[in-house]
Amino acid sequence: MTLLLAFYSPIAGLAISILLVIGLDTILGIWKNVKKSGWKSFSSRKLSGMVSKSVLYLLSIYMLFPIDFYILNDIVQSLFFANVSYLATKVLVLSLIFIEVKSIDENLKEMGIDLWANLKRIVSRAKEIKDDVDELE
Questions:
Q1: H or E element: which one contains 21?
Q2: What is the pLDDT of residues 88-100, one digit of tens each?
Q3: Most buried by CB count within 10 Å: which residue of 85, 86, 102, 131?
């Protein structure tokens, strides 16, 4: 068991991040359904989908990692990205996170919140603040 934990330790952060995004999507999905239909729409059957999705995502990550570790990592590092380790695993995790973020965006839109417009506003405000700070120097 210790050997497995040590082997998979390089991708522990990736696994945790995918679980956090799935959790956030689930919380927002519950919030959306309760807001629309009340607590009667809440059921354990819908929550079981989160568990099976989490298991499926983690299994796919943990099954790709050994292939990435033993085969793909050396090939990718020698041909393309010299400083990126486990690129295939990271691309898979980014793809899964993108799917979940899209689902989060859909949930928020149904509740009347536009995620991308708010992010754009925050980024433009941060640029304004940076410009103001640069002028002070």
A1: helix 12-37
A2: 999 999 999 999 9
A3: 86
